[in-house]
Design a protein that fits this description.
The chain has about 200 residues and is of the alpha/beta class. About 45% of the residues lie in helices and about 10% in strands. The N and C termini lie close together (about 5 Å).
Amino acid sequence: MRKDVNIFVEGEADARFFKQYIHHLFGEEVADERMVPLKGWNNLKTEASVLRMRSMSANGGINLVFIDADKDFQNRKGEIEKWKQTNGVEFELFLLPNNKDKGALEDLLENIINPNNQPIFGCWEDYEKELVRLDIPGRTPPPLTTPAKKTKIYGYLEALLGESKSQKEMIKEANRDYKNTQHWDLDAEYLGALRTFLKRNLY
């Protein structure tokens, strides 16, 4: 696996996932200094990020950027590609969850759970449907707010892990074990596009 790489991700949750997934694919660790959590994709535009990308490119290395597509895949892709061209930086872009649909890291994670645990999300979907139907007297405006997808993933792990303090710590984004096959499937078909992208650029 090539070492001359910067991997830009949105946050610590993404960094945790990508470090473990890349190790799963290649059997090698990504050095901490090669993983760059941006704390929001707009920080890709900072002078520090631009200088880091240009330095890596000038030395024959590669920059990989993983950003959430959010609500509009085409709009987000166009926005980033336009900025890339305007600023003369080089990087390979992959929009989460699968480089073609709207969404984010949490959508990717939802699609790679161990299939045996699907009933947990079935219960969650029933819960969301009930929230929409509930009418709370005096509440303006209805309906109730559906919890964020981050909460759904948190709830999934909380249901599977124990109640001890150490097990509760494993629910947190920075501590999750994506190699735990009882919880996640890193060989899931859904990861095909990401797997191909990483093998093309890192191997």
